[in-house]
Fold this sequence. Notes:
Layout: H1 3-20, E1 24-25, E2 28-36, E3 43-49, E4 51-53, E5 56-60, H2 71-77, E6 82-86, E7 89-98, H3 100-113, H4 117-123, E8 130-135
Antiparallel strand pairs: 1-2, 2-3, 2-6, 4-5, 5-8, 6-7, 7-8
Amino acid sequence: MQRAAFVRVNRVVNIVVRRLGLRRFRGGDLLFLTTTGRRSGQSRTTPLLYLRRDADWVVAASNGGADWEPGWWLNLRAGRPGIVEVAGRSVPVSGSEVTGTEREQLWRELNEHVFDYDGYQARVSRRIAVVVLAPVTA
Length: 138
């Protein structure tokens, strides 16, 4: 699928998921991550499957198996804050990529308990980032 078409379809899916109030998708729990565009300055919300780890949420920057980084991850990497909405509450978060053995462990857990991200990884040339969304404390 062409990038522009993929982005349009993804936005429609995100709207439908929000309007239906879905909390689960493909057997996994959903959170809603809102980030502000690093170039546009516009706020966008993306539903993401997640793994809970203590106070943090662990997500894969899979972009639905597309071979480019998702906008939400580019925004977080640029230092933009995010907001996680889950279970009726909103939490300001920062995002950081996990590397090394910790990444490998979390990647296994994501694949075992959340979704088959290995299938996405096999289709793309980039390495899918494992991202920890950590609450920002004032």
